[in-house]
Amino acid sequence: MQASPRLWCRVTLLAAALAAFGSAQAQEFPSRAIRIIVPYAAGGVPDPLTRTLGSMMSPLLGQQIIVENKPGAGGVPAMQDLMRSPADGYTLSYADAGLWAVQPALRPGIYDPMKEFTPLGTAVMSIIFVVVREDLGVRTIQELIALAKSKPGQLSYGSSGSGSLHHLFMESLKAHYGFDMVHVPYKAATQALQALLAGDLGVTMASAAASTPFAKSGKIRVILAATQQRSQFLPEVPSMGDLKVETTYSGAIGYVAPGGTPRPVVDKLAAALGTVVKSDEFAKRAESLFVEIDYRNPAQHLDLMRQDITRYARAVKISGAKAE
Fold first, then answer.
1. DSSP of 29-77, one letter per residue?
2. How far apart are CA 213 and CA 92, in angstroms?
């Protein structure tokens, strides 16, 4: 049955009204301060990175940007705060693979990132490196694998906790190459690195910021970057790409709004984010934090989230990690 001309007229008028409303909303937005939630405590990379982005985006948007730290429980309460907030662009959140992929895999049903989050874009990548004690006598990842295979279950590696990117990466590497090492979880990556420096561990994972000073002083050896490309900070260190393993376990860092945020509002926020991330001033700040520029627009960010959800669900299953 065909719709009557009168019904089509009403549908057309409604569509025009909605388009006009969206356009007006975009023109008016933002009319007050914007809040960005950081699911981690002050310090490290997330807090100063977000405050830098906020201060540089503020003049582009014409409004103050307030950063609010909300640490605890793997970032889940912070993301739930975001989901409870109106989808109007005034509440945003820092996000990474741990939040849009790992936590949903560890806690099935806690939230659906593809529905609950609207990606605004990624800014940088924090690279994970495999590091070993100098006296372990290992110079390459191939030598570490060979040593582990010759001493199954006798070597130990430290991570920043069960279900962390460090843990999932090493367990996936073990499964891929068929070697065994004992997992020793710590509450933070810095604790695992200190244990390695003290001689309690042979292997751990660390960021560029944590590993670079010790590597240059000869206290540790960095043998692998968990990315496809080599790091600008330690370009001599081979990457997963060099191993011809088409995966990465280093976390892109981006920003998200609540699911259902209107497209005109998303476009305005994403444009400001992209302008800042592509600037020379921001590049200098990122370098000082030992993170690498890794910009993706909202569509590319959404695609990355989709890939990460599949990759980390598989990694969680391989590792046997449980929510702590």
1. --SS-EEEEESS-SSTTHHHHHHHHHHHHHHHHTS-EEEEE---GGGHH
2. 34
| Cα–Cα distance for residue pair 221/133, rounded to 1 Å | 6
CA atoms within 13 A of residue 201's CA, in its CB half-sphere: 26
Could you confirm whether domain 128-225 is CATH 3.40.190.10? yes
> Could you read off the pLDDT of 75-116 as tens digits, one per residue?
999 999 999 999 999 999 999 999 999 999 999 999 999 999
* CATH 3.40.190.150 residue spans of the chain: 28-125+252-319
Residue that is written with structure tokens 């977000």 in the block: 50
pTM, to two decimals: 0.88
Confidence grade of residue 17 (pLDDT, cut at 50, 70, 90): very low
Q: Which CATH number fits domain 28-125+252-319: 3.90.1300.10, 1.50.10.20, 3.40.190.150, 3.40.190.80?
A: 3.40.190.150
Structure tokens at 43: 């310090």
CA dist 31 and 11 (Å) reads 31
